[in-house]
Amino acid sequence: MNHQENLTAYLQSFVNELVRNGIKNAVISPGSRSTPIALLMAEHTHVNVHVHVDERSAAFYALGMAKALKEPTVLVCTSGTAAANYFPAIVEAKISRIPLIVLTADRPHELRDVGAPQAIDQINLYGNQVKWFMEMSPPDAAPEMLRYVKTVSARAVAAATKEPKGPVHLNLPFREPLIPDFNHLEKYEADDPYLQIINGELTVSDEYVKGLAARLTGFSKGIIVCGEMNDGNFSEAILELAKALDFPILADPLSQLRSMEDPDNLIVDTYDVFLRNEDVKQALVPEVIIRFGSMPVSKPLTIYMRELEALQIVVDGGAGFRDPNQLTAEMVYCDETTFCRKLIEHVEHSKGNHRQLWTSLNEKTKQEISQVADITELSEAKLFHLLADLIPDNSVLFVGNSMPIRDLDTFFHKQAKNISIYANRGANGIDGTVSTALGVGAAKRKPLYLVLGDLTFFHDMNGLIAAKQFDVPITIILINNNGGGIFSFLPQAQHPKHFELLFGTPLDLNFEHLINLYGGQYSVVENWDHLRALCTDAESNFSIRLFEIKTNRDENLKEHRQIMAKVSQEIQHFLRDEGK
Amino acid sequence: MNHQENLTAYLQSFVNELVRNGIKNAVISPGSRSTPIALLMAEHTHVNVHVHVDERSAAFYALGMAKALKEPTVLVCTSGTAAANYFPAIVEAKISRIPLIVLTADRPHELRDVGAPQAIDQINLYGNQVKWFMEMSPPDAAPEMLRYVKTVSARAVAAATKEPKGPVHLNLPFREPLIPDFNHLEKYEADDPYLQIINGELTVSDEYVKGLAARLTGFSKGIIVCGEMNDGNFSEAILELAKALDFPILADPLSQLRSMEDPDNLIVDTYDVFLRNEDVKQALVPEVIIRFGSMPVSKPLTIYMRELEALQIVVDGGAGFRDPNQLTAEMVYCDETTFCRKLIEHVEHSKGNHRQLWTSLNEKTKQEISQVADITELSEAKLFHLLADLIPDNSVLFVGNSMPIRDLDTFFHKQAKNISIYANRGANGIDGTVSTALGVGAAKRKPLYLVLGDLTFFHDMNGLIAAKQFDVPITIILINNNGGGIFSFLPQAQHPKHFELLFGTPLDLNFEHLINLYGGQYSVVENWDHLRALCTDAESNFSIRLFEIKTNRDENLKEHRQIMAKVSQEIQHFLRDEGK
Q1: Residues of A in contact with B116 (CB under 8 A)
Q2: Residue B504: DSSP 8-state
Q3: CB pairs under 8 A between A and B
Q4: Does A518 sit within 8 Å of B509, measured CB to CB?
Q5: pLDDT value of position A531
Q6: What is the mean pLDDT of chain A?
Q7: What is the pLDDT of residues A384-397, one digit of tens each?
Q8: What fold does the segment set A375-563 form as a domain?
Q9: Is B206-366 CATH 3.40.109.10?
Q10: Cβ pair A498:B461 closer than 8 A
């Protein structure tokens, strides 16, 4: 076979095997060296191709799709710095356990480290930030090489989706000419993959579960903590387990449990507020904590757990180690849903009325917090309190890092609408947020709302082009406090010298121009009625609409402190009245 | 000493030692974990601090400064994906041999791999893309620890500036509280560094040079090829050597030799055009090539050198291997200027009149090319031909990758103005171009012109904020052909299916809005007189001005082909008339 036939047969086998192993989406950035793989992806009837010029945004977009679909997205780029631009999203994917298959085209061996154009060292380019790396052979259609390339293809999918899920990287060297021979393409037949890899899941023995159930029954005071989890089966199972144990569930906004039916009132969602109060912490001393998912957003909760002497049990289906407090006494490497189901079978109802206090504190706090609804001025706190109201049922809410995710945690409570909440909480970066949100939106095809601050928005302005190019309508609520609002809450704020230079970092940009660049709709929110009218303008046909809420960092700090002081005082009274 | 005193003394020693070893500039991105190092940099009277929110742009900006100043810029960021955003610029710095000192703040050891927020694995984060990595100790002011931290500081500068120059990475773990104690800061005294590291330079023996000189004298046909070099001493030395040898110098646009006085007419700058002609190549067969700098931009030159049987000698003061043709017979690891100076002493004038033909072909080609001046429509070719005319003396010209740098090579010839030309020709990426240009501009403080295409401009839109924030005026000539113009020149263009999707990639953006975002001046160029008027409007006081030239990819391809065909024909006639 000649060069082109080798290239074509080898890569078609590779792509077909990806598809047969379940791959549906590829995000491709333009380039020359990647031509053969890009063309074969575009030609494939079963691959949705999204072409994104900026590789940094492209990778976050792919991450968003993978996050929403819970299956790997493929990334394709050319050689050189293009591949380096994937790095931030790869780092986030690794730590937040999102499957990605990164395909970087490369110069062939004879053009490496010899000053050839666009040739960098791509071997292990992403180091420890990917789960698996393979430097692939130059294309070759010998039977044993087709077996090889199909096997690598299947292994890439399996490696990306094996728990803990994450990114994998294949580096593909190509010689010129780079054009496949379309006359030699075989028609794709949906078929079993050449290689099926069955990723087993972690489980624990019945003996362990029985023993644990017996021990749990002995405790009268227990709590369940759920960090980020994104699995409907788990949500059901954990509610059943909590009911069986009569333990409250402290549910992080990313646990998806704040948008669940909760007939038994098991969910506690205001702990971020009431666990700031020392008396409350004294009154709520559990003997056991069972924790699932990643570490919760709430800093008061983290500090609370750090101060306890309770037995801390962490269940992790990805077999990592997610406890910065290092107070875990039992780390259970078991699929979380399996763990719940197994435990439910053996558990007996615990005896205490511990949950009652959590529930009543939660209700009292919620009642107090709800007074932020009376704030007449535009306010970050009230925005998050109102959010569930403003957003339609059956929608996706993506939340920026830094202050928005924290405010969401504090002010967005359990409600009846089906709102899926997402954020990039692996490495908590302010990068790639717009793109990740659009990737989620493209996968979910539901109304997409993104709430974020001005620095986060600025960081990924490029990502917004995906809304226009891939037809993913997005509503952006931009909280513009002209700089880094979170720093006002940190000790740095006590040192005014250099503060605005290093931390405040105002950009002084009028984002209307940016929205015009992408042909979107821009509005400055004048007041709450205006925001409500904008959000409910369901008739409007849009690609991008941005509602800008201008706030002030100093006033926001003051308002947060006032709200927290008042709520804390009321909770204290409540606690005293309850005789605790 | 308490925590804060340890932190302060340790980091002040570190920063002072950087400064005493010559560091003057730091580019800092906002973050919490990096607070102590950021504050001490900002507090230091001898460090210019530039605060840049987007770390990707920040790193390219630092790269541009380092490129122009030929000394390391320091980068400072917080932990997490912030550090990953530096990766593209680090890759470019490594391969283009630009010194950078990358300081990433990190969580301390006890908060690593335990699910703590914003904690990723930063050990060897950049893998092979940095020259040196050190995981540093937590701050400690014991005398031996101050010796340690000052030694690492001095070594970082030395490692970054040792040939081949490049990026180094120090990872700094910090525990809370993160605020240094300003009361314990000592006043900075300019002093000798604690540790001076003298980076020796490569030289070769007199015996080798004498032998080479003798051999060269035996050749009647030799050429010198200069790729990217950026050293005034070298420019002088190479002209003297060429004169002594009577060899022509094929001077890449980034060799800086096209802006030199050249009284002996040694510089050949149109080879990219005439080496496309087979008859010319037959007539110009050197016996020896001496090459300096990185591989030249010109593909015709690379192909020409590939087809020769000449003795190829490459001189590389960075001791790399920059010959993708792998036809180098002698690779001389010696400082380039030293090599020239030593060789000049021993060389005797070679006998041939070989140089005459190169010179006359160069002049004939230039004369033919100059006819593009007659093109009345807006044209990419004519733009680069006119460029030296449009740009003031004593200015900086930064050129985007992909087509602009190639068109510059083809159409921008030797001229009398002092125009320093820069591009990112390590990995040839289209990323980070705006930021690198602004970094060069900030360092040079001369009129800054950036010529680039629309995809390249889009890729680093964020970088433009530096013009506004750091007061670096920039004139941008944007060649907007709505997509990836270079692909029209490649074999991909023969396959219209998927072409616009994967390679053409039109963005359909009106960049006027973007310029409005940054408060710049925007003009669509109507004709050549208009462009000239815009460029020479020296009275205008601006931060950003962008002149957009709208072109068409298909027409540009056609025009390039027509020009090349016509010039080639004329050169052929000339050659025949010369009797070659």
Answers
A1: 295, 324
A2: I
A3: 257
A4: yes
A5: 97
A6: 95
A7: 999 999 999 999 99
A8: Rossmann fold (3.40.50)
A9: no
A10: no
